[in-house]
Amino acid sequence: MFSVVIPLYNKAAYISGTINSVLNQTVGEFEIIVVDDGSTDKGPDIVRSFHDGRIRAVTQQNGGVSSARNAGIVESKYEYVALLDADDCWAPTFLEEISAMIDRYGTDMYATNYSVRQNGRLSGHRYTGLRTSQSISKWYMSHMEPVFFTSSVVIRKKIFEKTGMFDIRIFHGEDTDLWIRLASSCDIAYSEKPLVVYNRTPNSLATRKIDRDRMKRHLLSYTDKYDLSRPEVRHCVSLCQLIHGLYYYLFVDGGIFETYITRSRLWKFPLRFAIFYMIPRGCGRFLYRMYFNLK
User: Fold this and answer.
1) Which of 145, 154, 214, 282 is most buried, judged by most C-beta within 10 A?
2) CA nearest 285: which of 246, 259, 258, 255?
3) Which domain holds residue 22?
4) Same domain, 132 and 277
């Protein structure tokens, strides 16, 4: 029923635990597709050391995480694609919970809550303000809260024919870009149970630094895929401009503020994000590091 797609690039320290978290699922009908995106460490050897017919290894030249995920989706043979990064892991009942939601809701995208491990410490629930629901699509587009992430979603493969897969042009925000397209096209069934551990490592996608050149490959530079004639989509994109431009505004280039958003529009957005644009950038950087626990 499930094709588990794991993009792998220099994660030898984590890939064994990630694969084992899939093999330990209480639901056993799955395949694991590990896409080696040109790793230079021992990660691919570790994958080959597993002797389980459900595991397939695909090798490609380094093309980035979106390219690797797309390759795995293309290779998948089951109806549902479960995404899992090579340094994250699932609780044993993750696929069981997804299977129950499939039987209950029958939509095209499913997601669960998650926990975060950083510096060896595991947090509680990542988000506690949302309950299990048949669809959080409209809520997600109006709030853009990180109530799920790449390793906690399962997507019916056929919906990619309508939405497209990951946009390989995008370096930062490639996952959010796809979530916007999916949320505007189908229901997202959600479980409040934190059944995934997001391992925030020094080299994880969410902690990589953004420079001027890479910001040019941000999701905000590629909005051609969105139906901006729909008010809810316009609001969602504007909120992304506020949230996803924040790091760049504070740490790279304050001029990005006028590029993506003006002060007169800040009142429309959540204060916890807008406040960073209302105070001196030096104060904003200090508060940002405290809020997101960054060094």
Assistant:
1) 154
2) 246
3) 2-207
4) no
- Give the distance from CA 213 to its chain's centroid: 22
Contacts of 275 (CB under 8 A, 6+ apart): none
Amino acid identity of residue 235, one-letter, is H
User: Do 252 and 211 contact (CB within 8 A), yes or no?
Assistant: yes
What total of structural domains would you count in the chain? 2
Task: Evaluate whether 193 touches 248 at the Cβ level (below 8 Å).
Answer: no
218 and 184 co-located in one domain:
no
User: Which amino acid is it at 196?
Assistant: V
**What confidence tens digit (pLDDT) does each residue in 58-77 have?**
999 999 999 999 999 999 99
User: Please, which residues have CB within 8 angstroms of residue 227's CB and are 6 or more apart in sequence?
Assistant: 184, 233
Q: Which two tokens stand for residue 146?
A: 């990180």
Locus of tokens 């230079």:
40
Nearest to 247 by CA among 292, 205, 278: 292
Residue 4: name the closest of 40, 29, 39 by CA.
Answer: 29
Q: What does residue 80 show for φ and ψ, rounded to 5 degrees?
A: -115, 135
- Which pLDDT band holds residue 261 (cuts at 50, 70, 90)? low
Report CA torsion sign: 74, 78, 79, 85: negative
Cα–Cα distance, 205 to 225 (Å, whole number): 23
Residue with the larger pLDDT of the pair 187 and 127? 187
The DSSP bridge partners found for residue 81 are 3, 155
Do 185 and 158 fall within a single domain? yes
The structure tokens listed for 190 are 């959600």
Residue ending a domain, among 207, 230, 263, is: 207
For residues 47 and 57, give the distance between their C-alpha atoms in angstroms, rounded to a whole number: 8
